[in-house]
Design a protein that fits this description.
Blueprint (H helix, E strand, L loop, with lengths): L2 H29 L12 E4 L2 E5 L12 E5 L6 E8 L2 E6 L9 E4 L4 E4 L6 E2 L5 E3 L8 E6 L4 E9 L1
Antiparallel strand pairs: 1-2, 2-11, 3-4, 4-5, 5-10, 6-7, 7-8, 8-9, 10-11
This protein binds FE2/S2 (inorganic) cluster (FES).
Length: 158
């Protein structure tokens, strides 16, 4: 290989390598990941269209303002559950309507926020408030019973 050709091709590899690592780290920063804990596998079960979540096994939900995520194995069902008051809980599909970023619950602001670059925010009723997402996130009917069990109906979106 001629010296000039070698220098050109090795330079191209160097530029691609640098560009590749920059793009990769940028993508990571853009997509973002949520700090919201995942509910332990033994804290919930799927019974038909209903998820039964045991609050006693999810310490985050014992506190007002706490939240957890539920991920059902072998399905793309991902839900964020937040405790917004003593006896009031909310459940939404854990998917921003802009490009599918994960969500987090911010109790001080009373909003759900996408962790991705656009940081769209959503009201407690799911309505898009700010950012590139223009449509609401999907809420699920959720009820608490006296035994500290939450029932989340994933069969029919509200
Ligand atoms: S994915 Fe872009 S703001 Fe949520």
């Amino acid at each position: 290989m001629e010296r000039r050709v070698f220098i050109k091709s090795s330079g191209a590899i160097f530029v691609c390598t640098c560009l590749g690592s920059t793009v990769l780290s940028s993508c990571k920063a853009i997509s973002g990941t949520s700090d919201t804990p995942i509910a332990p596998l033994d804290s919930f079960s799927l019974e038909g269209n209903e998820i039964k979540l045991d609050i006693s096994k999810t310490p985050e939900l014992k506190e007002i303002g706490g939240s957890v995520k539920i991920s059902i194995n072998n399905s793309d069902i991902k839900i964020i559950v937040a405790r917004i008051d003593e006896d009031k809980f909310l459940a939404f599909t854990d998917k921003c309507t802009h490009r599918g970023g994960e969500l987090e619950y911010n109790h001080e602001k009373g909003q759900f926020r996408c962790v991705s670059f656009g940081h769209s925010t959503f009201a407690k009723d799911g309505d898009a408030l700010k950012g590139p997402a223009k449509s609401s996130i999907t809420p699920y009917l959720i009820e608490a019973n006296q035994d500290n069990i939450l029932s989340i109906n994933i069969g029919s979106n509200m």
